[in-house]
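Moderator note: this is an archived Q&A kept for reference. The question asked for a predicted structure of one protein chain; the sequence and the answer are reproduced below.
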Amino acid sequence: MGQTQVVTLPRLGSYVADQLRLVRSKSPAFSRYENLLLSGVSSALHERRHRAWLECAAATFLKSAPPADVCKFWSQEADEILLAAWSESGLAEKPAALFALGKHGAEELNLSSDIDVLIVAEPSEALAIERGLRVFQTRLQQAGDAGFCFRLDFDLRPGGKMGPLLTTPSQFQDYYWSQGETWERLALVRLRAVAGPAAMTDPILDLARRFSFRKFLDFTLLEDLKALRTQVHQFGFNRKEGEVHIKLEVGGIRDIELFVHSLLVLHGGKIPALRTRSTSQALALLETHKILTADVTNKLLDAYWDFRQAENTAQAVDDRQTHVLLAEDVQELLPRMKEVDEIVSGLLGHADLSVVRMPATESAQKEWLEHLGFTPHSVATTWPALMKSTALSHKNDRDERARGWSFYIPSCRNWLRPAPRRI
């Protein structure tokens, strides 16, 4: 569903023995899956998954296909496996629809990524659909002798982890039009139907488009987008000397995606042609409509797929979801990340990395507060009550972020002054 072009990769049989030996030397996972297929895999889903993964890994290490094709092929194979599991679980006959989000929604899936999914279902058969969904999850996620197929992530659904696993069409509309946050507008840019009747999928896709792309923009939208960038780089990961997080580092993959999706949301309401899920197509269209120059487009496009090549190479070693690379191995990418940072900062401002993080545990927070000069009484009584409170707002994500950050952003420390010490 929703695919415009079928991509193929070189078959394993097209490589010579020396090429395959080279790949095996670089990837223990490649050898493991080869041996599994030779010994026989009982599950047709696992067999197809491992064979496709081997082709992707070989194409990545040997550079026999561009990373855009590798990601597209892997996404297409994931679709076929999801569809087969959906049918085997009895969900194809139910009033339910399966949607992809994230990189899978964009058909740019990396080699060891979780698959972000959303389930929309009519409430009339909710119990039967829930039973089928448990089977669906088990078939794809449960690890056995043949490993697993895919890790499924349902956290981008309305309400996140706290929301129901199944979303009805009316709940989908009510949630996004009353509580939807800016980051969710960006996320739904890549919403794509994978399975389900068109009578269900088409209205949901239409609602998502109208939620993400608006002719009249909220004055706080750009402010929210800038805050999102800062949040990604402050809290996404722990920086370590000698390492580069190719996804979340300043000027990395996430920065390019955030920049592109921000431009699509800002302009897509008035320019319907910009409503695309594809990063490459989005950049080309932004150039066509004079929103980006050819120079900027080429820099971002080249950087994005070079970063994705590095990401796939790292993940193809052990089939493990990692984005951390040794800086010494990617020296040629570091100047590109600086270029990306300069481009993204022109729209979303510079990423502020000066935040001093609040300690995670309650005991460490108390010690930290006492060191700042708060009285034991304030630490024991006021602080716990304050941390349990949440911002009551239609812009909960933004206002909760502001409420929490005010405690520990250095420039805002005077918002919460320590009580004078008692003598």
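Archived answer notes: The CA atoms of residues 257 and 279 lie 7 Å apart.
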